Amino acid sequence: MQRGSTSTSHATWPSPSQSNKHSQLSTKAQSSNQTGEKERQNSVIVGIGVDLVDLARFERAVDRTPRLRDRLFAASELDKPLRSLAGRFAAKEALIKALGSSDGVHWLEITVTNNAQGDPRFDLTGETAAVVAARGITSLHLSMSHDAGAAIAFVVAERADDAVPSGMDDA
Question: What is the phi/psi pair of residue 156, to 5°?
Fold first, then answer.
């Protein structure tokens, strides 16, 4: 029996209760003030999304509809084992939920990759990247896990506190 695994991007850890040595992780944007000291810009959560995928159900869907893999996953994702694909599917669904809408979002423009430390992250391209930018989103945090026949993903979308998404200004 294989044990599940959990991956969380470093951008979501440590929690505020942890050591301050990583406090810059809570706000990605930093700027220099007139004295040259760095000051943090606050970020605002603009969306959260979570999705849970039953691995057996996902496997049946992929077996029943062979072209499903090609419609949902980028070429770089296709060689992953089924449980990893299920986690990536959950991540993409959770991203759409965090964005609040699937308008302008295309499955093949969302790729789940891993950084050098093995942490999951999104690589967005095309219209999907443009939608995220237009909504003022400056940071996406992704956490994924699979165990006990299920895969789950959680996404937090943030923007800089002073960023105003296009079409949302009061002018």
Answer: -120, 130
Give the model confidence (pLDDT) of 31-62 as tens digits.
334 444 445 568 999 999 999 999 999 999 99
Kindly state whether residue 28 falls inside one of the protein's structural domains: no
What's the domain range around 103?
A: 43-160
CA 99 to CA 119: how far, in whole Å?
21
The answer to the question of whether 93 is labelled as a binding residue is yes
Q: Is residue 124 in a domain?
A: yes
Asked if the structure places residue 90 within a domain, the reply is yes
56 burial (CB, 10 Å; 0-12 / 13-18 / 19+) is exposed
Picking from 169, 165, 170, 171, the residue whose alpha carbon sits closest to that of residue 44 is 165
Residue 35 CB neighbours (<10 A): 6
